[in-house]
Amino acid sequence: MTAAHTPDGALLGRRGAGRRATVPLTVVFALVATAALAGCGQQRDDDVYTVLNSSTDDSYHSWDAATLARCSKQLGITIEQQSVPAAQVMTKSLRMASSKSLPDVIQFDASEMPTFAEAGGLTDLRTLGLSTRDIPQGIVDFGSYKGTYYGAARTVNTLALFYNKDILKKAGLDVPTTWDEMRRTAKELTRARQYGIALSAGGAEDGVFQFTPFMWSNGGDESNLGSKQVAEALDYWKGLIKDGSLSKSTVNWTQADVNDQFMAGNAAMMINGPWQVETLNTKKSLDWGIARIPVPETGDKSVGPLGGAILTVPNTGDTRREKTAAKIIRCMSSEKEQISYARNSWMVPANEKAADLWRKEVPELDALADQVATARSRTAKVGARWSSVSLALQSAFQSALTGQSSEAALQRAQQRATSGN
Amino acid sequence: MSATTASATAPDTRQPAPAVKKPDPARARRRRRLSQWGFIAPAVVFMVLFFGYPLVRNVLMSFQDYSPSTFFDGKAPFNGTDNWSKVFQDDLFGKALWHTIAFTVGSLIGQFGIGLALAVFFTKKFPLNGILRSLILLPWLVPMVVSGIVWRRILDQDTGVLNTFLDTLGMDGATPWLTSPGMALFSVILVNIWIGIPFNMVILYGGLQEIPKELYEAASLDGASAWRTFRSITLPLLKPVITVVLVLGFMSTVKILDLILALTDGGPADATQTLGTLTYQNSFVQLDFGAGAVVGNVLILISAVFAVFYLRANRSEGK
Q1: CATH number for the domain including B156?
Q2: pLDDT in tens, A332-370
Q3: Is residue B56 part of a domain?
Q4: Is B285 in contact with A387 (Cβ distance < 8 A)?
Q5: Is B176 in the A-facing interface, judged by CB distances under 8 Å?
Q6: Does B153 touch chain A (CB under 8 A)?
Q7: Is the CB of residue A98 less than 8 Å away from at least one CB of chain B?
Q8: Residue among A12, A394, A404 minimizing CB distance to B32
Q9: Domain ranges, residue B141
Q10: Alpha-carbon span B175 to B156, nearest angstrom
């Protein structure tokens, strides 16, 4: 009923019509085919170098553009910046590797570098002539995988305790330094719509990043999630929720959400990083202070996670270009550039000398610089397995914070993390 | 060859009478066939390039050890059913499968039910009908990720608009919409229903316009009740449209990814992990592309089974 029977070839059979149709089709095919093939063979321009980073944010993009402009001038080449969202740097780089179109420099989040290095994608920076003089051992390790130095950091960051000075002063409370103090202070500061503390226990890397200082300061370790120390740290978080000092929404918050809560006055304290300072300072009426993350007992060491991006030279096999790429990194991570980047981004310069100068400029961030000095990298122990460990840990603390027992959740996480790869 | 000549000698009234030049029937036929293929070719090439190739690659990949190093050396050794057994042994797969089914069925029932009710409602003549109808389309026009982010704020337990609103109504506005594992899947389904209503309404409304008015007139003369009219006239005549709406709805719901990533990121505690998010997590977070391909294949298989049912239904309708 639906398909009308057309007389077979009544139209198509006429001589001209058929030819008229086939000729344009052939042309279209030829065009499509050439267009598809042209995409494959990209020619590299000799004096043009590319840096791939995640500076999609307006301000970061323009800071990097300024740095690259200065380095271009110094090295007599053209350096282009290509920015993709942070979550896509790895997959984009892998795709570029398979199509042999890798950029000259890739800025990875340090926790991702081991995966790319393990696949054979990176070049040893030392053999390319970069030195690690004046860089603290912790930060050299941060950019290294299995003893090879692959990534140079410009600045590093970590987490600290941010507090609202006005609220604490009004309540007559001191800035907490131990877990017990923090729990008590948070409870006292919780009233009506205001929570004592905000932190991110979200189901992504943000939440894991925030959990590490509690896990590590208590002697726990990502290579054994089932240990008593890790469970205690998680129980501490559970306690904050039980007291009502920490919102249950924490499991759905990113670190940016936590910052929003703090700025809106919904939280008296928060765990967060220096990259939020630029936003925090946009609210003039907010008087905030910064302190080291409280430790389980007085005298314990506060161990924060070392965060930040590192500059790497991908393995393209073109030694001449790789050498120039190393020069670009040397320029980008020079003391002068580190300080200018640190001033903009509020992060701590990697170079010791630059960090000393920077400390004098921003004494209010002293606590952060101290925290960085003892901070630890997430991948030092588990290397390329970090993503599996991180996923298992996210799931575990979310289960525990929403009702399950910490021990059971973490034990399962340990199983998942080890069977994962 | 003999067949060609045989048919050529048969009287063919459809062909225009031979002109001055003597035509070569075999050649004309060949040319005709060629041009027929010319018309089919673009579709075939498109299907092979953009559907066939990825599909075959995806199936192959699920039997390969496809890791980041594959991108450099091109080596992806076959590892039998390792990826499959690994995925099926993970508790998360069972959970994700169950969540996907619940999400799809829940969303479809909600979207379709409300969409149909609204479509029937808008066939009535009343003032502002047109304006209201176009306003209801809005959720459809908003990008999925934007909807997700806005809803995440609306559903926030402490500061969300919804809970604040419930509070002012005197109800206890502390519902943990997205923060309790028991609640999150339900909330995500609610948001997806909100997103899907306009699409269902528009298509069903179009279908309703096609139903001849005389039938309703006849029914009312016979004294049929509103429910009876709906059941005996509207539903059966709307059936082809309903099939299309449900199939398209199924396709876009079963593979859900963006909305969930924006709302909950699969959390809390994996309470909203679906096959879509699991594929994403395996492939692009863990970079275990083999495992990601396995979950992707399961998703394709589910869709394929559904597509067969759809084709069957269509065929029986054509008879």
Answers
A1: 1.10.3720.10
A2: 999 999 999 999 988 999 998 999 999 998 888 888 888
A3: no
A4: yes
A5: yes
A6: no
A7: yes
A8: A12
A9: 92-318
A10: 9
Please tell me the distance from the alpha carbon of residue B164 to that of residue B167, in angstroms, as a whole number: 5
- The CA R_g of chain A, rounded to the nearest whole Å, is 27
Q: What are the domain boundaries of chain A?
A: 48-153+309-346, 160-304+383-419
Token digits for A31? 């065009």
CA distance B176 to A400: 16
Q: What pLDDT shows up at residue B84?
A: 93
- Tens digit of pLDDT for each residue in A367-415? 888 888 889 999 888 888 898 899 999 999 999 998 889 999 999 999 9
Q: Per-residue pLDDT tens for A136-162?
A: 888 999 999 999 999 999 999 999 999
Q: How confident is the model at residue A204 (pLDDT cuts 50, 70, 90)?
A: confident
Residue B40, domain member (yes or no) = no
Q: How far apart are CA A306 and CA A348, in angstroms?
A: 11
Residue B21: per-residue pLDDT: 62
Counted domains in chain B: 1
Residues A43, A47, A48: CA angle, nearest 5 degrees: 65
How far is B197 from chain A, CA to nearest CA, in Å? 26
Name the token pair of B315: 């065929």
Please name the helix (run of DSSP H) or strand (run of DSSP E) that holds residue A196, with its range, or none.
Answer: strand A195-198
> Does 3.40.190.10 match the CATH number of domain A160-304+383-419?
yes
Q: Is A161 helix (H, G, I), strand (E, B) or coil?
A: strand
Least confident of A141-145, A271-275, B12-16, B168-172: B12-16
A203 with B264: Cβ contact below 8 A: yes
Among the listed residues B244, B143, B250, B146, the one whose alpha carbon sits nearest the alpha carbon of residue B202: B244
Residue B82 lies in a domain: no
- CATH fold of A48-153+309-346 reads D-Maltodextrin-Binding Protein; domain 2 (3.40.190)
Assigned token pair, A45: 């321009």
In this complex, is the C-beta atom of A263 within 8 Å of any C-beta atom belonging to chain B?
Answer: no
Cβ neighbourhood burial of B44 (10 Å; 0-12, 13-18, 19+): exposed
Q: Is the dihedral of CA A204, A210, A213, A219 positive or negative?
A: negative
pLDDT (0 to 100) of residue A4? 38
Terminal Cα distance for chain A, rounded: 58
Q: Does residue A297 surpass a pLDDT of 90?
A: yes
pLDDT at A133: 87
* B179 and chain A in contact, CB less than 8 A: yes
Give this prediction's pTM: 0.82
Fill in the amino acid letter for A315.
N
| Token couple for A160 | 């600290």
The answer to whether position B77 is within a domain reads no
ipTM value for the complex: 0.79
